[in-house]
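Hi R.,

Here's the chain you asked about this morning:
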Amino acid sequence: MKDLLIVNTRIDRRALLRGVAAVAAVSSVPWRQSFALDALSSGGHPVALSEAALADLQKSIQGQVILPSSAQYDSARRVWNPRIDGRPALIAMCSSVADVQATVQFARSHDLLTAVRCGGHSYAGFSMPNGGLVIDLSSINGVEVDPTKQRAWVDGGARLGNLDRATAPHGLATTAGVVSHTGVGGLATVCGQGRLARKHGYTIDNIRALELVTAEGRLVRANSTENPDLFWAVRGGSGNFGIVTKFEFELYELDPSVTSFSYVYGLDQAKAMMDLYFELSEHVPNEMSLSAGLNTSDKGETTASISGTYLGTPEAAEKLLAPLAPLGTPARKRLDAIDYVKLQSIADGTSLFSPRAVYYRSGYFNHVDSRLTTVFVDYVTKSARPGTSIRFSQQGGVAGKVPTHATAFADRDALHQCAVDVEWTGPNDEAQQRKYADDSWAVLAPMSDGSFYLNFATDLSDAEVRRTFRGNYPRLVDVKTKYDPKNFFHLNPNIKPRSA
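And the predicted structure, written out as tokens:
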């Protein structure tokens, strides 16, 4: 196919004046007569960006180039997880696809360490590297919906809330995550788990086409017939192949009223509750998704809970949950009808930023080891720390019936995902909380299938990345070598090209 070309034949006088003013601002930096900005190369070596180079970048894009000296710098580099405190050399606030292309070309010409930011939820901090250039897509966030075709066209910098709020008025939805200010791009290139996955597949299963800026700055379209190798790889291969600037999603009819439920029990019921969770997971219909685990509050109280969503009425959900009756009356119970869009944002918190630092360890389980419940509950009973949670979430359904080789994402046989979540606020708490997460996962990992949900993963080794992609890995290397032979896009769970 031919690459898509972006040609701007009109001159926007206001944009031109803004660009001139921004260049003047860069040119008037008062630090020293011959200004140079310290940055890092893609290989981690020092790079000095001259005043003229920065002025050229600003002239080439309509969005603003933010430097450490800019008043907006600290707000622009802030991400959801306060554990991540990256200080990039510069941030390009792209306002169009043409801006993204120009910034990629600038980064390549200066060999800059380059990251992409959609929603800023990267647990590993990939989107905000020290000394790098950040391509910020947050202003490229439009969503168009065709209710007749049941399709949505979503820009790469949109957030899940943009998608849900645009589709819901038409009685439509597609699988998305559970925090509305998560970036669509980061979610939809890894997997995209959510409340609709068991009914309609993962987010990646509902991408019908996409547009992507390559490492050369070219804009290409990919679908099942155009660049099908790229289309296959992006759906699960993370950001290894380029910057997705537009997705086309299939939508499904959805009653806006769904059921949300939570049953909380004392620690003495934990083993029985977890056994029932694993048993229930084998039998509930695809309209229901379950999770269960142990949570320890900031005050040190540990409780067991089972919760989830049902695409139906509370009365029907309660009948499906009747096998929980032997546990007795829960300490707390919630079983309510709720608007789907409201439910999708219920875990958002009060702002775009978490007040608590967060660290995760997680992995998949494609079978339930007979020892799992006992080992899990006994470990938490003896070792739990305040501000920690270990939960299993149900997988399978429609998402589990997609063939392993249909997309780059390989964990189609997973029955459950387990996530160890630790949080803290004190500056001296990080080491102990992270140790608890690492130790907890070390106890559970031998019973897992050895692979990871990449959006929750940090510091994966090359071997762990290969193991996660299973038999799909060699094909991913082929695609990576074709589209990014110099590994320009490597701030991700990296798939190395052969030439690298």
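Residues 143-253+463-483 form a domain with the Uridine Diphospho-n-acetylenolpyruvylglucosamine Reductase; domain 3 fold (CATH 3.30.465.10).

Let me know if you need anything else.
M.
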